[in-house]
Design brief:
A hairpin with a 2-residue loop joins strand 15 and strand 16. It is elongated, with a radius of gyration of 24 Å. It is mainly beta. The chain has two domains: about 170 residues, Protein Transport Mog1p, Chain A, CATH 3.40.1000; about 140 residues, Lipocalin, CATH 2.40.128. It has five helices and 21 strands. The strands form four sheets. Strands 12-13-14-15-16-17-18-21 form an eight-stranded antiparallel barrel.
Length: about 350
Amino acid sequence: MIFALFVISFVCLIGSIFSQTEKLDIVEFAPPKGWAKTPKEGVMTFTDQNKATAAFCILSVYASLPTSGDAQKDFDNVWNVVVVKSFKADANPKTETRTQDGWTSVSGAAQIETDGVRSAVVMTVITGYGRTASVFAIFNNEAYVAPVDTFMTSIKMDKIKAQAFAKPPAESSPAAAPANSQNAEYLDFDPFPDKPYIQAQKPLFGRVRKSITAADLAGTWEIGGASVMTYVSSSTQQYTSASFFGKKYFIKADSTYESRTQARASNTTIRETDSGSFILAGATVTMKSVKNPAMRYQFIAYMVQPNGAAVLTLVYIGDGAPMDTNAQIANCSHPNGYVTCLNGEEWVRIP
C-alpha cells in the first residue's frame, strides 16, 4: 500500500506513562503489547507481522552516545548511518524539531523500497544533557501509524543518568574511590552499538580503554591475513592461488620498534625487516622508518583482557584528517567480539 509520509508528532518527554514501561540506557518507553522483543547490546527491537496481509512494523531504541552539541547534526549523522546507507533513502528529509525540559527531538521520515515492498521509515533523535539517543521505526501499512505514534509519545528521557555520563567518577559521588580501572580507564558503554539490517555483533570480549599511552603500546604485536582463490577453466581444469602475510611489531618502551614481515603470493615468498620509531599524539600514531618515512594511523580502540592480551584497532589515514565520532560509528563495529573498521587494521598482542 502506498501511503503519505509524515513526521510523527513526538514525544511526551516529561509526561506520565500509564502502561508498563521498559528502559534502555537513558530512554524509558512503553513497548506495544504482544510484539516480539529482541534485546541486543546497545539496542532494543520490537517487531510485529501480519502474515495474512504481509504487513509488518519494526521499532528500535538505541542506547545513547555523546552528542555533537547540535541536535540537528546528531539527527543528520544517525539518519545517514541507519537510513541512507541501509536503505538508500533521501539524505535530506523534511524534519520537525521540538524542545522540552532541556531535550530537543528532531524527527524525519522517508519512503523506501526493499525487495519491491514500499515502506515508511521514521527516525527520531533526542538530544540533551550531553547525550543523544535514537528511536527508529519502519512499517509498510497505515495500520501501524497509531501504534508507532503511541509508542513514541510514551518515551521519557532520564536527565539524571544523562548528566552522570558526563561527570568524572569523583564528581559523581563525594565518597568515590580514587581513580582505578573500574571507574576511570575504561568505557562503561558500547562505543559501536548494533545498526539495523547490518550483521549482528558479538559482545566485546574485553574492556575498551578510553585512551592509550606510549607505554600501552610496548610489547609484541601481530597482524596478518590470507586469501585463497580457485580458478576453473575448460583447459586447465582447476587452479588454486593462495596468498598470505604475517607481520610482527616489537615495540619498546622508548618509542622505538622493529618489525618482521613474511608474505607469500602464488610462488613468491617475501621476507622483510624494518626498524624505526613511533609517535603517539592524541588520536594519531605515526610510524617512521627508513623504508616507510611516515605511516600515520588513527587510534580507534584499545581492548584489553586481564591476562595482558590486547587488540589495537587502527585506521590508516596518511595525510588525511582523522574520522570524527560519527564517522567512526558508521565505519566501525565488533561482529567478532573485537572492534574492526572499514579499511582498518587490528593488531593483536599475545600475553
